[in-house]
Amino acid sequence: MYYGPLIAAKAGIEIDGLDKDESAMFMNIPLSIANFLGCITCVFFIESSGRRAILLRTLPVMALCWFVAAIGMCFTGESQTLSTQKAGG
User: Fold this and answer.
1) For residue 62, what pLDDT is reported?
2) Residue pLDDT, tens place only, 16-74
3) How many domains does the chain have?
4) Which residues neighbour 46 within 8 Å (Cβ) at sequence distance 6 or greater?
5) What secondary structure does DSSP assign to the chain, as a single string?
6) What is the pTM of this model?
7) Whose CA is closest to 69, among 6, 7, 2, 3?
């Protein structure tokens, strides 16, 4: 949640009529809604299913989302590597 706007800005996601920072903040709204809905859903199922069962069932989905986000970041158009950034390039 904290890094959502930064990730959206680095990914180059922009909304017509808004600058880069405003677009990043606006794109964080769906992320916040998804987080809220996921938390509310877990509140109702945590007592009947148990924490461990919920964690084990959702872990593959979380890993897939992390993988998709990592692949998406590879295609942001950033051509600089960490070594060239340190060298001032």
Assistant:
1) 94
2) 888 877 888 888 888 889 989 988 987 888 888 888 888 898 899 999 999 998 888 88
3) 1
4) 54
5) --SHHHHHHHHT---TTS-HHHHHHHHHHHHHHHHHHHHHHHHHHHHHH-HHHHHHHHHHHHHHHHHHHHHHHHTS-----HHHHHTT-
6) 0.51
7) 7
Range of the domain at 26: 4-86
∠ Cα 30 32 33 (to 5°): 65
Do 15 and 78 contact (CB within 8 A), yes or no?
A: no
Q: Helices 51-74 & 20-49, crossing angle to 10 degrees?
A: 160
Question: Nearest-CA neighbor of 10 among 27, 35, 29?
Answer: 27
